[in-house]
Amino acid sequence: MKKLILMLSVLVTVIALTACGSKQELVGMDKIEALRAAAESYDSGCYVIRNNADGEIEQTFTFMYDTDDTQIYYCEGFDTNGYYAEYSNGRELFRERNGVGTAVPSSDENYVAYTRKKPHPYSTGQLFFYINSYVASAEETTDGEGNTLYIYKYDTESMNKKMNTELTDFATSYAFDSEGNFVYFRQANSGKDGNYSYEITVEGVNSITSIENPIKTDG
User: Fold this and answer.
1) What pLDDT shows up at residue 28?
2) Do the beta carbons of residue 75 and residue 85 sit within 8 Å?
3) What is the pLDDT confidence band of residue 193, given thresholds at 50, 70 and 90?
């Protein structure tokens, strides 16, 4: 899970990196850019992050927008400290850690709330990692299910300099079915801390109409 946390923290760096260098013409880039753009305008959805090594789900992030464009979300998963969960309806924030739930008051320095204009980063197209100018090679192939697969291998030397990481390999793949619909995104990397590979799928796009708060507090 340490590696998943690192992966998600990299999202913060994506915007800065995207502006670096000139744009390359890459196979599949139109589909990938369209996917990321579409994800920015989802009204609701659930992102599922699964570890490819054991097939276990490491995090789910479910979100929707209220009538005033406030973002409502529920996130749960496992990190280095065990199970965690977080729920927000834009006015109230609740967190759970290993079975203990707490309400976070708006006066707390850790209180956060999100809107359509400033959404939670786990609900945006940034989850589908893509930095055009750092791609070293790109290819189109098919996976075992017959999906069209675009595989991008990145220039880790340049990424390490920018992100202060120690990656030796970093690759992403994007799968689309015969009708051009997105199926899954995968990222694999290796470096000083070992190897890690995960998959992201999306469920319930624009069809989620309510998200209940399952976190219980003593109060």
Assistant:
1) 97
2) yes
3) confident
Q: Is residue 49 part of a domain?
A: yes
Chain centroid, CA 56 distance in Å: 16
- In which domain, by residue range, is 197 found? 2-11+27-203
Helix (H), strand (E) at residue 133 = none
Q: Is residue 215 part of a domain?
A: no
CATH number of the domain bearing residue 46: 2.50.20
Cβ–Cβ < 8 Å for 14, 126: yes
Mean pLDDT (the chain, rounded): 90
Edge-first strand listing for the sheet containing 148-154? 100-104, 93-97, 82-88, 71-79, 57-65, 44-51, 194-203, 182-191, 167-176, 148-154, 135-142
Look up tokens 């970093």; give the residue.
170
What is the DSSP-derived secondary structure letter of residue 100?
Answer: E
Domain count, the chain: 1
Q: Is residue 165 part of a domain?
A: yes
Residue type, 70: T
pTM of structure = 0.90
Q: Is residue 209 part of a domain?
A: no
Tell the burial category of 98 from Cβ atoms under 10 Å away from its Cβ (0-12, 13-18, 19+): exposed
